[in-house]
Specification:
Elements (H helix, E strand, L loop, with lengths): L1 H7 L14 H30 L3 H5 L15 H8 L3 H32 L5 H13 L2 H14 L6 H26 L2 H9 L8
Helix pairs in contact: 5-6, 5-8, 6-8
């Protein structure tokens, strides 16, 4: 009889996420924080968009216009940026420099990280530590010697100056990240490939 009464007793210990079954609790603990987070996250993009299409008068006259809304949208600012400034050239230079620097950095970092983690040569750990310490060096310390080298090589005021300079900051960071990636790959996979006759390049 006691067992029957125990089984019929209502379960008051909800536990886990059971307290979220109530709608007011879900609103306070889940939906409201998510709403605040989304608003804070998306507001800069909203402000950037309305500012791009807002006339100059609406951007300065807050007494007569709402700063969070556009009354008379215009594309004049975008037209001015694309056709009356050097922005397209700057954008093209940025794409070329960032793509070339990223390619050179990844090329060097993949070889360096693979050699340190997989070839097991003498002093590999010390080399890895040295690369990590190089990553910690503030880039501002390298500006003066790098500028001297750029002047001596005759690359001043050319895209090649940045293409060759940026990898000095990127390679240590990329190598450090890729060392952790190669460390996570089991050695047995490479050993099986070597036993099957694959070369290092094929692996």
């Amino acid at each position: 009889m006691a067992a029957i009464e125990t089984n019929n007793r209502p379960n008051t210990d909800e536990g886990g996420m059971g307290y979220l079954q109530s709608l007011p609790r879900r609103v306070v603990t889940v939906y409201l924080p998510l709403l605040i987070f989304v608003i804070v996250l998306l507001f800069p993009f909203y402000w950037m968009t309305i500012t791009a299409v807002k006339p100059n008068l609406e951007m300065t006259d807050y007494a007569n216009f709402n700063p969070f809304w556009v009354v008379n949208p215009t594309l004049e600012h975008i037209r001015y940026l694309l056709f009356d400034t050097s922005y397209p050239g700057w954008l093209l230079n940025t794409i070329i420099i960032s793509t070339a620097s990223t390619f050179l950095s990844l090329l060097a970092a993949v070889f360096a990280a693979y050699a340190i983690e997989r070839l097991r040569f003498s002093g590999a750990r010390q080399v890895g530590l040295a690369i990590f310490l190089a990553y910690l060096v503030p880039p501002s310390i390298l500006f003066i010697p790098l500028s001297v080298m750029v002047f001596n090589l005759g690359l001043y005021d050319t895209p090649f100056a940045l293409i060759l300079t940026y990898p000095t900051f990127l390679i240590p960071f990329c190598t450090w990240l890729l060392m952790g990636y190669f460390r996570s790959i089991p050695f047995e996979l490479e050993e099986c490939a070597l036993m099957d006759g694959a070369s290092r390049w094929q692996i």
